[in-house]
Amino acid sequence: MSTIADPKAPRPSRPGPSRRTTRGNFELYGWVFMRGSGVILIVLIFGHLFVNLMVGEGISAIDFGFVAGKWASPFWQVWDLLMLWLAMLHGTNGVRTIINDYAEKDTTRLVLKIALYTASVLVITLGTLVIFTFDPCPPNSPADLLPSFCTA
């Protein structure tokens, strides 16, 4: 006959270094960041959707020229940059939490986090470069390759 363990008994700790003592207030700050960034992201995303879909001609007007005109304004560059950064950091923090909860081996956790952080830094860096270096009318380009609104 087998016995069932008491469900109210404390669980034995995992082998290896304790993760709870090394994190300090980082998890608290991560939790607060998720709530704050979530609220700001709601405003940024619905503002983005409203301007892109409701104002003007709707989705049929979104093309290369629309994006080029929008990113000609520093306001929209900063808006889209904030949306990119907050969305990526918010998502990265969420996936980091999932990795901490479900990856049992320290090596697996480390590899997954390195892949996550590498991908996040890459997307944030490339997205920031695109937003601030985007030029729909590059100088010395052949006129037949330029959009119609560029003066050759």
From TrEMBL:
Keyword Transmembrane part of the UniProt annotation: yes
The organism of origin for this protein: Cellulomonas phragmiteti
UniProt signal peptide: none
Compartments it resides in: Membrane
Region (Disordered): 1-21
Cited InterPro entries: SQR/QFR_C/D, SuccDH_FuR_B_TM-su
Transmembrane segments: 28-51, 71-89, 110-134
Record protein name field: Succinate dehydrogenase
Highest taxon of source: Bacteria
Pfam families the UniProt entry points to: Sdh_cyt
SUPFAM superfamilies: Fumarate reductase respiratory complex transmembrane subunits
Keywords noted in UniProt: Heme, Iron, Membrane, Metal-binding, Transmembrane, Transmembrane helix
